[in-house]
Amino acid sequence: SYFTKAKFLTSAPGITHLSPFEGIEIAFAGRSNAGKSSALNKLTRQKNLARTSKTPGRTQLINLFELDEYRRLVDLPGYGYAQVPIAMKKKWQKSLGEYLQKRECLRGLVVLMDIRHPLKDLDQDLIFWAVSAKLPVLILLTKADKLKAGKRKAQTLMVREAALAFQGDVSVHAFSSLSGIGLSEAENKLMTWLEV
Ligand code: GDP
User: Which residue ranges does the record assign to the EngB-type G domain (predicted)?
Assistant: First the structure.
């Protein structure tokens, strides 16, 4: 797949540290433990591209992965740690909102949510900001292998229905890094954003 050539480019401590980029970026965001690192590793067929770190609050860096000279994947810090002080959460929200609004090279946002616990408050905030910034959103309902087919479809339809409320370009797919459910759908969507 096109994404296998991804390689780590750099980390930035915050959006203000990202230099301007003439190409296209696609950002990945999700609550901590949603399966973001696993999804990035699956997409790129690389075991350790995005570290699957279990240390709360540690992965506050923005990691940039290069696909080619003009295209990048951006791994945003996971959110929703209960242990993180409220002031830090506020700061995170502000900088993420700014990133979605102001990053001109940003072409779309992938939001990862556990299929069993979708659309928590911060997920909804994020989708709302992205849609407000006129960005298309791809919701991947992760760990889909944990549900039987019937329940998986029902959850997907429920989130799809709920996503209509955002009145933007929001698509929803069940996804599993373990079984590969939804992988080709995700790849196809991202390829259209990257114009490849
Ligand atoms: P992150 O914090 O969002 O980067 O989440 P990780 O990718 O580190 O995954 C969190 C936990 O969920 C880990 O224990 C993973 O093994 C597990 N996990 C991630 N994706 C899947 C999946 O598709 N299926 C199942 N069954 N477990 C998954």
Answer: 22-196
Assign 56 a pLDDT band (cuts: 50, 70, 90).
low
**Residue 3 phi, psi dihedral angles, 5° rounding:** -80, -10
φ, ψ of residue 56 in degrees (nearest 5): -60, 135
Counting ligand 1 atoms within 8 A of each CB, the residue from 52, 117, 123, 175 with the most, and so the one to mutate, is: 52
Ligand 1 near 51 CB (within 6 A): no
Q: Are 36 and 50 in contact (CB under 8 A)?
A: yes
Q: Is the CB of 35 under 6 A from ligand 1?
A: yes
Nearest CA to 114 among 187, 15, 32? 32
CATH of span 2-194: 3.40.50.300
0.90 exceeded by pTM: yes
Report the nearest atom of ligand 1 relative to the CA of 31. Answer: 3
The sign of the torsion formed by the CA atoms of 32, 35, 38, 42 equals: negative
CA torsion sign for 112, 136, 64, 178 is positive
